[in-house]
Amino acid sequence: MILEERPDGPGAGEESGRKGGDPREQSRRARIHQQISKELRMRAGAENLYRATSNNRVRETVALELSYVNSNLQLLKEELAGLGGGADVGPPEGSGASVSHSSEGVTVPMIPLGLKETKELDWATPLRELISEHFGEDGASYEAEMRELEDLRQTMRSPSRDEAGLQVLAAYYDQLCFLDARFFSPSRGLELLFHWYDSLTGVPAQQRALAFEKGSVLFNIGALHTQIGACQDRSSAEGANSAIEAFQKAAGTFRLLRESFSHAPSPDMSAASLSTLEQLLAAQAQECVFQGLSLPDSTTPQDSRAQLCLAQEAAQVAAEYRLVCQAMAQPPVRDYVPASWTTLVYVKAEHFRALAHYHAAVALCDSSAVEEGLPEYEQVVQPPTPLELQDPVLPQQLEERRKLAKAHLKQAVLGQEEALRLHARCRVQRKVDLLQAVVTQALARSLAKYSELEREDDFFEAAQAPEIQPKTQQKPEARMPSLPQGRATDIFYRVGPLPVFSVKNRWRLAGPVHVARGEHGFGFTLRGDSPVLIAAVTAGGQAEAAGLKEGDYIVSVNGQPCKWWRHAEVVAQLRGVGEAGVSLQVVSPLPGPEPRSGGDRWPALLRSQRECGLETSVAAHPSTSPRPLLGWSRKAKQGKRPRP
Hints:
This protein is an alpha+beta fold. The protein has 20 helices and 11 strands.
């Protein structure tokens, strides 16, 4: 039985705790919470049926219902986040668009991705058992660390739509890397079941592999970048550049996910889906480049050459979206990509192709271009096809140039009408369709320009205008996400250094062992840092009598944990004890399940410390020690151990 979840969405807990304010807004917020709870109950019931049935037709029907519920949840959460001055983050699946506003009206909406949702997870129970069983410590003593990990995951489930939310996701991802290195091995795991919902379809998926959890968090990092990019105010150069950077990072995140993780259990993390998302984000970044160049700039005059540049930029955006259309039409992506996405991409491809013709027409109508000539035009249009007899040539006569401009405007009008026709075929869930307003506004502008060039004595059809050659001044490339990658602090730091204290290694905990000080000291040589290990044991000495062996790691000195102590700190403690001796606790590495090559019985960390040559033989009296506490021995570098 699947338990019902509380409505954890973007800003859900935050919004529900607000007091006061506009009563109508409070009533609206309460209504949205009720609708979210209703959708969650519907999803829980559909999920139960999806798992229980073996009938393929029933599963397809339930999967379709889950996709609708998933879209409704994303829309409701977006509406909830927008209350009370929240960030303007668009609906990731339902309408497939988020829009920024400018002084000239609305701009073309973007497609942000919805975050994958997950259920609550109990990290504490399996970690407590593993620490007690494998590491030989009291698992209950790590309750604070387990609570910190679970709080971080709970926060990660509904991150804020800003840089702080990205930092939360990155911090949890980094902790997953630490957990993977310390508590997971090919032969042993924590017996946890990671449960995530597909971002595109809402269909549940679950796996025991930690890679599924890591991949889902990485997916959400990329999705959050798309939401941040989509809500930028692209009516300013700064906002357009911020949107470009966000889409670049999102594309880099999905590329990293595609290259690092295989055997995706959900459609949104399959290689085909991630590749399509990369293309989509590259197209949206290219669109932001066009919008940035379209902004009025007092330092750059909008002359005919600038208009031709914009024409090529618009053609580049159209070409990028045509590639996305092709990718979305291929199976299996076409089976689970939202229909609103496909429609929006087709409409954008036609819209920007029409804009390319519009800007070319504006360039031809520029009076200064008539006087100075416009040789760039012949480089802007597409090269001729085999069916065409000659290259497109710029007419020198004003009348011929007017006819060519009309031909480009005709293509612009036809393209924008086609965009509206494609758009009308898709049912949109938003009450106000922003995309339709954008295309309608562009169509009205093209018709107005066409009317300016129209004459009563025009009794001929406008010639066929050549297509515009795609070209861009800035080609956005995918950028890798800013992940901590080991720079963060391991929550389970107290367990010990990772190279030794992980489930991939086996050892035996011994002690406390009492070692008396003999005439020639304790009878062992120490080497390395964190943890310090016993590099050699003197035959017949006090250490050998106490049962210490070469290769043992010292983890406690007189009851003080010293896993993270440096070499000098351990030596200082040993030399400071009196004649009564010292109480040590050590761990003795055990052979792994696979024999080591070459018969080398030294653990990996011991080999690295031996290469460093950091050794100290603990003498009977500090004042008579012939060696410094920390020394780089040339003999040790040559592989020879000094005599104790």
